[in-house]
Design a protein that fits this description.
The protein is mostly helical. The chain has 26 helices and no strands. Helix 13 packs parallel to helix 15. The two termini are 42 Å apart.
Length: 507
């Protein structure tokens, strides 16, 4: 009598999602989430059901994020009611400053000027000849300006302009949250880190950064879905709205190098270059000076708020005229270190981990740190290190910096000197820097010791956001050069087994 054949589970293929795993619940693995859950009935039990009914995880997280966004808008209410228009210090004392209403008139939108093409008169711009933002951000600003109609005065127009931009940025926030929730297929609740981040609520409507942040999140989701060309196109568009998204091509380069996925990286890089060119080249041809203003302004801008260089400059009294050189040198050295980390780590790092490290390095070495730059890091941090304790430590430092910069501007903007003096401002800059360094250190530890990585430890994943890199065998590592084994003769079956995902990832 013959026995029935034994069913075999097919081996997972690189770049394809594995069989559906149970949703990872933070209350099962995260002490802070477990304690916080007591306000909503306690940790999820064994009979809890995920993803059924109308309130799916993505809808819950989006609803929470929109609620926090609304609270952030309420925090700006004193300025909307008049602090933006009653002198500088009032908007700083209430910590509700925003660039948006001031630039409606200050960059010529109130006069119907076309960004990049029309030169802005000095009487309204203070010497800024053209709009100093990348092209897609300028398009976003222009669309909002076209929708700003019906005001009886310039003040009402500026108020309406902020409200319209806030509504458009809310759409960007919803896109961002959906993408973060879906990037790691069985970890949707990691998106709650983004939704509840104090830095997001406080800074979302200071400037237009959420546009680039949302497009970057879409690009990372497309990469996680093994669509490198589309992912690259979104990263290119994001770079056309803000410069930092181009940095993500660096992590993709070294990760694809380690996995031997050169075709995927080529498609991503080519897509990024093509989409960026489609947006920028027409403006270049029509008005080179207008298009180049963002880049020349960034180059010529002196050491400014929030940077390590400002602390050194204030403490020593020395003006850093060569800050660009120092910052670039540190950035290059740091990127070389991140690349070495990626090629030497015992397991190939996850894409989100390296993306966070590179963008954080840019933030730490840059000659200016505006409060809204924290938006760049929040979604990357949620994907790179989804642990509430570390995330909240970092966010506490950022909230302290948010308050500190406005109190410092209130101190320097008034003869009464009420607020935070220079020494105090240096302390809050140091808190921001140390908080970011702390989170970077935790991510580096996860890379060097993968058993500490929350994503890999909790659900046995490799890189759920890695797309074609997920479960792919290594093709090149620096450690393999130092420890090259002696050639041995082996059967074809043994050679095939040596490149299986499980064999390459066992410690």
């Amino acid at each position: 009598m013959t026995s029935a054949p034994t069913a075999r589970t097919p081996a997972p293929q690189p770049g394809r999602p594995p069989a559906a795993r149970p949703v990872v619940r933070p209350t099962d693995h995260d002490e802070v989430a477990t304690a916080a859950s007591e306000v909503a009935g306690g940790p999820a039990g064994r009979r809890a059901v995920d993803g059924t009914g109308w309130w799916t995880p993505v809808r819950v997280v989006v609803a929470v994020a929109l609620g926090m966004y609304a609270l952030g808008m309420l925090q700006k209410l004193p300025c909307l009611d008049g602090a933006w228009f009653s002198g500088q210090t009032s908007q700083y004392v209430h910590a509700c400053y925003s660039d948006i209403p001031h630039l409606y008139n200050g960059r010529g939108f109130a006069d119907g000027l076309v960004p990049y093409l029309d030169r802005i008169p000095d009487r309204i711009s203070g010497g800024m000849e053209y709009l100093e933002y990348p092209v897609l951000t300028g398009v976003f600003m222009q669309i909002a300006a076209k929708l700003t109609v019906g005001g009886d005065s310039l003040r009402q127009d500026e108020q309406l302009y902020w409200v319209i931009n806030a509504g458009m940025l809310m759409v960007c926030l919803a896109v961002l949250i959906v993408c973060v929730v879906r990037t790691h297929h069985n970890r949707p609740w990691d998106g709650m880190l983004v939704a509840l981040a104090p830095g997001l609520a406080l800074t979302a409507t200071i400037n237009w950064d959420l546009l680039a942040v949302a497009m970057t999140a879409v690009g990372m989701l497309l990469w996680a879905r093994s669509r490198p060309l589309a992912a690259g196109m979104l990263l290119g568009l994001a770079t056309a709205a803000k410069l930092y998204p181009v940095l993500l091509l660096g992590p993709l380069l070294v990760l694809c190098w380690r996995a031997g996925r050169w075709g995927a990286f080529g498609r991503a890089a080519g897509g990024a270059a093509a989409s960026w060119a489609v947006v920028n080249v027409p403006v270049m041809l029509l008005s080179w000076d207008g298009w180049a203003k963002f880049y020349t302004f960034s180059q010529e801008r002196p050491v400014d708020f929030g940077s390590l260089w400002l602390i050194i400059q204030q403490r020593t009294g020395r003006t850093f005229d060569d800050a660009n050189i120092y910052a670039t040198l540190l950035m290059v050295l740091g990127c070389a270190g991140v690349a070495a980390l990626a090629l030497c780590a015992p397991r190939r790092p996850r894409f989100a981990q390296l993306a966070f490290l590179v963008v954080a390095l840019f933030v730490l070495t840059n000659k200016v740190y505006s409060p809204q730059y924290v938006l760049w890091l929040i979604p990357l941090a949620a994907l790179a290190r989804p642990r509430w304790r570390d995330f909240l430590i970092w966010q506490s430092c950022e909230a302290l910096y948010f308050l500190g910069i406005w109190m410092y501007l209130a101190y320097t903007g008034s003869d009464k000197h009420q607020g935070l003096p220079e020494d105090g401002y240096q302390l809050v800059i140091a808190a921001h820097l140390l908080g970011t360094v702390y989170l970077c250190a935790m991510v580096v530890r996860d890379v060097l010791r993968p058993e500490h990585d929350p994503v890999r430890r909790d659900d046995g994943s490799d890189d759920p956001g890695g797309g074609v890199l997920d479960r792919a065998p290594d093709a090149f590592t620096l450690s393999s050069l130092a420890h090259r084994p002696a050639p041995q003769r082996s059967s074809g079956a043994a050679q095939r087994a040596a490149v299986r995902w499980g064999a390459t990832l066992r410690e």
